[in-house]
TrEMBL record:
Keywords: Isomerase. It comes from the Bacteria. It comes from Streptomyces scopuliridis. Its EC number is 5.6.2.1. This is Type I DNA topoisomerase.
Length: 947
């Protein structure tokens, strides 16, 4: 029965989906009688902090949001930013006769549907409506064929959520205490970080080896053409039957793996080339084999991310954002899937398009099927493909930009998957000759010809290695036979050096995680986003480079929480979670073993081997995080560079150090934040230590006689005075040295004593207003500004600090105050109306980079976001995440803002500096509070972005 005929008998049906964009599309397909509304993601989750936990809960429950003493019962609360939406949904439900829960068809979507049912408490019939594509036929079929909620899927999601909460909330505080505030740990993110760190360790330990060989250009002596060239290029393969060493023959230590190969150095290679100059060469063998290549399976989540990275330069997160948009607008099927299966409808559509676009000769006799390759795939979804029973070509979609590029990639891959194999021939030719000193040299050349391109007419897969040869690359060799004479037109001597293992890219890290069966494909994009956002990893081009901070974090976890970042153990946890999802294991006993460490032959204890079957007591997570005394914070954050130099990861960043700070000759120098760890050699560390410490003596202040120096500090270059010995530095009579930051136009090597004295004269009293309130000109961390009581106004340039008049200052204060510097600038982009606040959303340029705002809530763009590519939905998502953190508490930061108002107007510079010092202290406290909250919340994100 169609939706239209169902509603002809009266009644109103409420359909709840996850996103506003999806709601808009589906509403157009269902017509009158149906109200389609979005939940805007999760409406309920574990609390983000103790303040959100109901008062009846105490102790560990308030901290964890999970009652570990009572069967790990989760405490769910409605997200602060979703309360208005929940009220709206309840109002709509009160006016409805039926409820359709139409969230995504995966485990996460099933959990969202369950939470909706639990919170809304419907008194009308409830139906679970599922679909894998948003087309009119699919949506109407889903309405006509609802099912019940799958509680097993809900339980599986809940178990993962609890596990990740326990992991994050117990281990992250250890990182705060021993490494740095604001860090986080996670079941998959920590393992992913370890993979990147281990690859960098391999690069650091790597020793390059040099090897040489010969390349010859050999001619047949006849005229050639494109199909039968007259010459071929071959590389020296062996000398006197002994294979010549290539890069693969050397280990990471730069030594040969076997002495059975011949290692040519430059001298011997050049000598051999000279000896072969007049040699006679002939074809010793020609080996021809048939070549056949089958098409690649249709896309699943991870292979789409990998190919979009290789071919389009998209990050995993960007790929999923664009794919989400394509799905919600009805262009592709659901993009979170482990399956490579195509429905009969899709196979028919693909085969029809093959015939239409390429001809019947490219269509195999039978449809192709692809077996699943993912162990314990989450659900048996379809592969990612164009939606509908007739695929739209890219030109027919009307799409542009990134959406067009990604749709085209999916369309090509899907069509190609139903085409014939590519066939051809591969040929290996061996050429021999004897040198003037009697040595036998054999060269080898390989070729490939494709006689029928088959699926390659539509699509060829990319490669992670930029130097790799793609499948459709042909190398034609001359048609030669054994015994044919050849002449050497040129013999070149080539030197090579082995290279360290390549760093991971997003694509190759996704591939590695999947091959190790760690995590789930649907979460990989968010995992990579997390380790980038946390500062554990940064990008150089497409390469993922670990920060020095990540070395300290991984070192701590490996040393004291080894099992938590053990690859096999993490993969086994994934198996255990899948067993729970399949009803083969119980969640509560498993969680109890993981957390408390009770012995069992299938124990999930973390202190010993996973599932070792010996029945011994295995230490649980709680036991590991209780005794932190054995963790030496300095030791786990220190790494030897060589020659007595240590790299240390400090609270304010990495630095190199030689000797103890209390000893004579102690040296220390900051390390650039963007330096790749494998680039920190002893030589480079020596250069850093040899640089001036930043202390440049400028001379003595004529008034005080104090020496004035310029320094390079944590927040940039500055000048300060050296107080005489005996000056009290603490207590009631403490004297603080005058200090001032250099202007942006100044540098340490050019600043003068006069400049320094002028800078240290700030803040400058400009005058007083009509009410007697003093106005001062000050230079702050974010630039020059005026200050009158608690009212600050930015100045256009630093010179105004010294020349602005009282009249000009009063004129500035006469203008309405703007909210920050960016407020006066036009928005960088307009995104539309936020579905929650119903306010216009724009992108602006702020002090810390671009951000989205609806005028009430601001959210900074993340690493993978950009002004050019951000979509309205992504903007709404960022704002929703920010709102979920709740309103800012009255912390030290607000106290800092109020502090100056309690003081009398400054009469001289020292008074203003004392107030500024108090403000700085309060701001530091506020930052610590924020860092703690941020780190605590990092483990409380949804399962799609957790782990």
């Amino acid at each position: 029965m169609s939706p239209t005929s169902e509603t002809a008998h009266g009644g109103r049906r409420l359909v709840i989906v996850e996103s506003p964009a999806k709601a808009k599309t589906i509403k157009g397909y269902l017509g009158p009688g149906y109200v389609v509304e979005a939940s805007v993601g999760h409406i309920r989750d574990l609390p983000n902090g103790a303040a959100e936990v109901p008062e009846k809960y105490t102790g560990e429950v308030r901290r964890l949001g999970v009652d570990v003493e009572h069967d790990f019962q989760p405490i769910y609360v409605v997200n602060a930013d979703k309360r208005a939406q929940v009220r709206k949904l309840k109002e709509l439900l009160a006016e409805s006769d039926e409820l359709y829960l139409a969230t995504d068809e995966d485990r996460e979507g099933e959990a969202i549907a369950w939470h909706l049912q639990e919170v809304l408490k419907p008194k009308v019939p409830v139906h679970r409506m599922v679909f894998h594509e948003i087309t009119k036929d699919a949506i109407r079929a889903a309405v006509a064929n609802p099912r019940e909620l799958n509680t097993r899927m809900v339980d599986a999601q809940e178990t993962r959520r609890i596990l990740d909460r326990l992991y994050g909330y117990e281990v992250s505080p250890v990182l705060w205490k021993k490494v740095m505030r604001g860090l986080s740990a996670g079941r998959v993110q920590s393992v992913a970080t370890r993979l990147v760190v281990e690859r960098e360790r391999e690069r650091i330990a790597f020793r390059s080896a040099e090897y040489w060989d010969l390349t010859g250009t050999f001619s047949t002596g006849r005229a050639g053409d494109a199909s039968d060239p007259s010459s071929l290029v071959a590389r020296l393969n062996s000398v006197d039957g002994r294979r010549v060493a290539q890069g693969r023959d050397f280990g990471p230590d730069g030594r040969l793996k076997s002495d059975q190969v011949l290692h040519l150095d430059e001298v011997n290679a050049r000598a051999l080339a000279v000896a072969l100059e007049n040699a006679s060469f002939s074809v010793r063998s020609v080996e021809s084999k048939p070549y056949r290549r089958s098409p690649y399976a249709p896309f699943r989540t991870t292979t789409l991310q990998q190919e979009a990275s290789r071919k389009l330069g998209f990050g995993a997160k960007s790929t999923m954002q664009v794919a989400q948009k394509l799905y919600e607008n009805g262009f592709i099927t659901y993009m979170r899937t482990d399956s490579t299966t195509l429905s009969d409808t899709a196979v028919s559509a693909a085969r029809a398009q093959v015939t239409q676009l390429y001809g019947a000769s490219y269509l195999p006799d039978k449809p192709r099927t692809y077996a699943g390759k993912v162990k314990n795939a989450q659900e048996a979804h379809e592969a990612i493909r164009p939606s509908g029973d007739r695929f739209r070509t890219p030109a027919e979609t009307g799409l542009t930009g990134d959406q067009f590029k990604l749709y085209e990639l999916i369309w090509k891959r899907t069509v190609a998957s139903q085409m014939k194999d590519a066939v051809g021939n591969s040929v290996t030719v061996k050429i021999g000759g004897r040198s003037s000193d009697g040595r036998d040299a054999e060269f080898s050349a390989s070729g490939k010809t494709i006689t029928f391109h088959g699926f390659m007419k539509a699509y060829v897969e990319g490669a992670d290695d930029p130097n790799a040869e793609l499948d459709d690359r042909e190398r034609r060799l001359p048609q030669v036979a054994e015994g044919d004479a050849l002449s050497a037109e040129e013999l070149s001597v080539d030197g090579h050096a082995t290279k360290p293992p390549a760093r991971y890219t997003e694509a190759s890290l996704v591939k590695e995680l999947e091959e190790r069966e760690i995590g789930r494909p649907s979460t990989y994009a968010s995992i990579i986003g997390t380790i980038l956002d946390r500062g554990y990893v940064f990008k150089k081009g497409t390469a993922l480079v670990p920060s020095f901070l990540s070395f300290a974090v991984v070192n701590l976890l490996e040393t004291h929480f080894g099992r938590l970042v053990d690859y096999d153990f993490t993969a086994k946890m994934e198996d255990d979670l899948d067993r729970i999802a399949q009803g083969e294991a119980q969640a509560v006993p498993w969680l109890r073993r993981f957390y408390f460490g009770e012995g069992d032959d299938h124990s999930a204890g973390v202190a010993s081997g996973a599932g070792n079957g010996d029945g011994d007591h295995l230490g649980g997570l709680k036991e590991l995080v209780t005794d932190l005394g054995a963790i030496d914070a300095r030791e786990i954050s220190s790494f030897p560079v060589g020659d007595g130099i240590m790299l240390r990861v400090g609270r304010y960043g990495p630095y190199v150090e030689r000797g103890d700070k209390d000893e004579e000759g102690h040296q220390r120098a900051d390390v650039p934040e963007d330096l790749a760890p494998d680039e920190l050699t002893v030589e480079y560390a020596e250069e850093l230590l040899a640089k001036p410490s930043g202390d440049f003596e400028l001379g003595a202040d004529p008034e005080t006689g104090h020496q004035i120096v310029a320094k390079d500090g944590r927040y940039g270059p500055y000048v300060t005075e050296i107080l005489p010995d005996g000056t009290p530095k603490t207590g009631k009579n403490a004297v603080k040295p005058r200090t001032a930051s250099l202007f942006k136009s100044m540098s340490l090597d050019t600043v003068t004593l006069a400049d320094a004295l002028k800078l240290m004269s700030l803040p400058r009293v400009v005058g007083t207003d009509a009410e007697g309130v003093e106005i001062t000109a000050q230079n702050g961390r974010y630039g020059p500004y005026l200050k009158k009581g608690t009212d600050s106004r930015s100045l256009e340039n630093e010179d105004q600090l010294f020349n602005i008049t009282l009249e000009e200052a009063l004129a500035i204060y006469a203008q309405p105050k703007q909210r920050g510097r960016a407020a006066a600038k036009p928005p960088l982009k307009e995104l539309g109306t936020d579905p929650v606040s119903e306010r216009p959303v724009v992108v602006k340029d702020g002090r810390f980079g671009p951000y989205v705002t609806d005028g009430e809530t601001n959210a900074t763009l993340r690493t993978d976001d950009s002004v050019e590519t951000i979509t309205p939905e992504r903007g709404y998502e960022l704002l929703a995440e920010k709102r979920a953190k709740g309103p800012a508490k009255k912390t030290a930061k607000k106290a800092a803002k109020k502090a100056p108002a309690k003081k009398a107007p400054a009469k001289k510079a020292t008074t203003a500096k004392k107030a500024a010092a108090k403000t700085t202290t309060a701001k530091t406290a506020a930052k610590k509070t924020t860092a703690k909250k941020t780190a605590a919340k990092s483990s409380a994100a949804s399962a799609k972005s957790d782990e």
